[in-house]
TrEMBL record:
Keyword terms of this UniProt record: Chondrogenesis, Membrane, Osteogenesis, Transmembrane, Transmembrane helix
Region feature (Disordered): 436-511
Sequence similarity: Belongs to the TAPT1 family.
GO cellular component: ciliary basal body; endoplasmic reticulum membrane
Protein name: TAPT1 protein
């Protein structure tokens, strides 16, 4: 039979009392002693998330490798800038002399060629004339008056002026090489082409004005730095050096691709080399004021070391955090070094399409002409040459500069060949294949174009800079020049892209995608489009 209501009540009471006893027992288990014991004896296994911890360890190793890899790139890049800078003082005057000698003695040998001078000789003469004109124009700029005018300003004003000068230097450099390239091409383009531009003379005056204004801008930078060195409490120098650390804030929290980091690295190389030349100018001016007393050089030495050390520290910290936040390995700097080496090796070929100093200017934004004008102006005003012995010393010093330039070029070329070989890019320099023009057979095109720097294709279908047509007619489409070093950078890791599939793909590719054609003028690592 069914249980009575009384039995049901007793059964429910029994279950409720049993549940209460279990609840009291579980509450008694959660004592403070047991909690502390559990916390002290609790374990976990890192191998359950092995990929995550391995990635974190690799990031640490990458940050530890950044200083070494970055300084190797900086060291190589600074010597590239030094090679282009020494070229202006050593080989450029000799090349101008040879070009003028050819121009004067040309009637004696007869006109064997349509050109009076070769394009490279025309560019050399233009560079030499611009250098001489701007040097004499700089004599009308009073350095002493500029120094006292800047020294009379307050510290805050000088800090703002120095920041404005840095931005203005990058902006004017971004436009300066375009002005010089426009002048060179206007002076050397084929004469049968119908001109749709203004002529050589307006371009020449624009180039002279640019070099002069840029030289004055760099002089104001050097003067401001000199005022900071000579201030009594060194507060201005400290503020100016702290400005470098502000650059970290504006860079590390932005998204960077490998190509953007390459641009910023080139900008850092140019900035560091320019600062070294500015420090040299400051030391020359100070030594002149103290009658070349060698004891004063040791007074300047701590400040010079502080400036150099702050530049190095800021670059290391900036690149370390950029690579960390964007998951970029430290091996990318060897790729950047190989790309710069590829530019050097390709420009040293017999039929190069550009001078190496101009290649450095486009790649790094370093234009040596304004800096060379200012340095010549400072040296000639600081050092007085009197007597035969002094002129003999000048000749010996010039011979020493030529020897340094030749030695530096030989070492750089050897190291560049090594870097290109390590990057497995050397075969892309020696496979000249002429691209056929649509609508014309290959035989006719070979008769129309001279074999110089241009597009070649290797076994894998990638293009390289080996041959470029010199004479192009109007009805022929322009050929897009690409560089294997740049494709080496733009191709993602682990992917192989066929860049030269057909001619239509080359036409539709934007010029900004080809790193060789992109000017390396940057503002804090951002491309100026």
């Amino acid at each position: 039979g069914q249980p009575s209501p009384q039995q049901r009540t007793e059964t429910l009471g029994f279950y409720e009392s049993d549940r209460g006893r279990k609840k009291k027992r579980s509450l008694s288990d959660l004592s403070l002693l047991r909690f502390i014991s559990a916390e002290l004896t609790r374990g976990y296994f890192l191998e359950h998330n092995e990929a995550k911890y391995t990635e974190r360890r690799e990031r640490v190793y990458t940050c530890m490798r950044i200083p070494k890899e970055l300084e190797k790139l900086m060291f190589f890049g600074i010597f590239l800038c030094l090679d282009a800078f020494l070229y202006v003082f050593t080989l450029l005057p000799l090349r101008v002399f040879l070009a003028m000698f050819r121009f004067i003695t040309l009637p004696c040998y007869g006109l064997r060629d349509r050109r009076l001078l070769q394009p490279a000789q025309v560019c050399d003469i233009l560079k030499g004339v611009i250098l001489v004109i701007c040097y004499f124009m700089m004599h009308y700029v009073d350095y002493s008056m500029m120094y006292h005018l800047i020294r009379g300003q307050s510290v805050i004003k000088l800090y703002i002026i120095y920041n404005m000068l840095e931005v203005a230097d990058r902006l004017i450099s971004s436009f300066g090489q375009d002005i010089l390239d426009a002048l060179y091409w206007t002076a050397t383009e084929p004469k049968e082409r119908k001109r749709a531009h203004i002529g050589v003379i307006p371009h020449f005056f624009m180039a002279v004005l640019y070099v002069f204004l840029h030289a004055i801008l760099i002089m104001v930078q050097a003067t401001t730095l000199n005022v900071a060195f000579n201030s009594h409490n060194k507060s201005l120098l400290t503020i100016m050096m702290s400005n470098n650390f502000v650059e970290i804030k504006g860079s590390v929290f932005k998204k960077f691709e490998k190509n953007n980091l390459f641009q910023m690295s080139n900008s850092d190389i140019k900035e560091r080399f320019t600062n070294y030349v500015l420090l040299l100018i400051v030391c020359l001016r100070n030594m002149e004021q103290f009658s070349w007393n060698p004891d004063h050089l040791w007074v300047l030495f701590p400040d010079v070391c502080m400036v150099v050390a702050s530049e190095i520290a800021v670059d290391i910290v900036k690149h370390a955090f950029i690579t960390k936040f964007n998951d970029i390995t430290a091996d990318v700097y060897s790729e950047y070094r190989a790309s710069l080496a590829f530019d050097l090796v390709s420009s040293r070929q017999k039929n190069a399409y550009t001078d190496y100093s101009d290649s450095v200017s486009r790649r790094m934004g370093f234009i040596p002409l304004p800096l060379a004008v200012l340095l010549i102006r400072v040296v000639t005003s600081s050092i007085k040459v009197q007597g035969v012995l002094a002129y003999v010393c000048v000749v010996l010093f010039y011979c020493g500069l030529i020897s340094l330039k030749v030695l530096n070029s030989i070492v750089l070329l050897g190291k560049s060949c090594q870097y290109v070989k390590e990057a497995k890019m050397e075969e892309k320099l020696f496979n000249p294949v002429l691209t056929a023009t649509p609508g014309k057979p290959a035989g006719k095109q070979q008769g129309t174009f001279k074999s110089t720097q241009g597009i070649s294709t290797d076994e894998n279908g990638s293009t390289s800079v080996t041959n470029q047509p010199v004479h192009q007619k109007e009805n022929m489409p322009s050929l897009l020049v690409t560089s294997n070093s740049d494709q080496f950078l733009t191709t993602p890791d682990g992917e192989e892209k066929d860049i030269s599939q057909d001619s239509s793909e080359l036409k539709h590719r934007s010029a900004k995608k080809d790193l060789l054609e992109i000017d390396r003028f940057t503002i804090c690592g951002n491309r100026i489009d």
